[in-house]
Design goal:
Blueprint: H1 19-25, H2 31-43, H3 46-64, H4 69-94, H5 109-133, H6 135-143, H7 147-153, H8 158-171, H9 173-193, H10 199-218
Helix pairs in contact: 1-8, 2-9, 2-10, 3-4, 3-10, 4-5, 4-10, 5-6, 5-7, 7-8, 9-10
Length: about 220
């Protein structure tokens, strides 16, 4: 496993490959191994991941009951909340201490604005692509699947992160398509056989899967 290693005493900037390096070298990965990596991260702090998922569901329910204002609030609240899963996963990977408050680091002004902009722009692009011919929408959704971890961990600006995500994913598009297909099918099966209760594990594992795939591709 490459994602639960301890931090090395190296320059943090050297931990990540550049998108150009990844594209030049090419890559592929095994979807089942990536999901296994995500499950291993989840198992390292099951309690907090499940509790945070319950919180997300509660916030979503409350905002969904408030016309217009609730929808507007979800646009602002959801991106930094989702990013919280990445922040906690990073702390687990590096062996750093974390608390439940670590899930809310996305609200830090350093990330907050870019997270919202990435969410808005990618959503608009995906909707436009879907309207014109479904397949472009699917392609864009896959292409931007690691834009958020790219911005949080490597790039600092939303557009740079989006472009890096698009180019990197395109370089190994077959692996990403297989991963997303397996994730969707696995999530449906896990939710059905647990009568819906499994969603408490499925949601964080899905997010962690994309984080784990990002690490497989971008980490030296």
């Amino acid at each position: 496993m490459i994602i639960l290693d301890q931090p090395e005493n190296a320059d943090p900037q050297s931990e990540w490959k550049t998108p150009e390096e990844v594209i030049e070298q090419g890559y592929s990965f095994n979807a089942t191994e990536i999901i296994g990596d995500a499950i291993n991260i989840f198992k390292r702090d099951i309690g907090n991941f499940v509790l945070f998922t319950l919180l997300l569901a509660g916030i979503g329910l409350v905002l969904g009951l408030i016309p217009i204002i609730g929808q507007a609030a979800s646009i602002v609240v959801n991106p930094p909340l989702a990013a919280g899963l990445i922040f906690v996963a990073e702390k687990i990977r590096k062996g750093e201490p974390h608390t439940f408050n670590s899930f809310f680091e996305g609200f830090n002004s350093k990330y907050f604005g870019n997270l919202i902009v990435i969410s808005l722009i990618t959503s608009v692009f995906i909707v436009i692509g879907t309207i014109f011919c479904i397949l472009p929408g699917i392609f864009l959704a896959i292409s931007y699947s690691i834009a958020v971890p790219m911005m949080l961990l490597i790039k600092s600006e939303f557009w740079d992160a989006m472009e890096a995500s698009r180019k990197v994913v395109y370089a190994g598009f077959g692996s990403w398509f297989a991963l997303i297909l397996l994730v969707v099918l696995g999530a449906l099966v896990a939710t059905l056989i647990t009568c819906g209760i499994g969603i408490l594990a499925v949601i964080p594992i899905v997010y962690l899967t994309f984080y784990a795939a990002f690490l497989r591709v971008m980490k030296r």
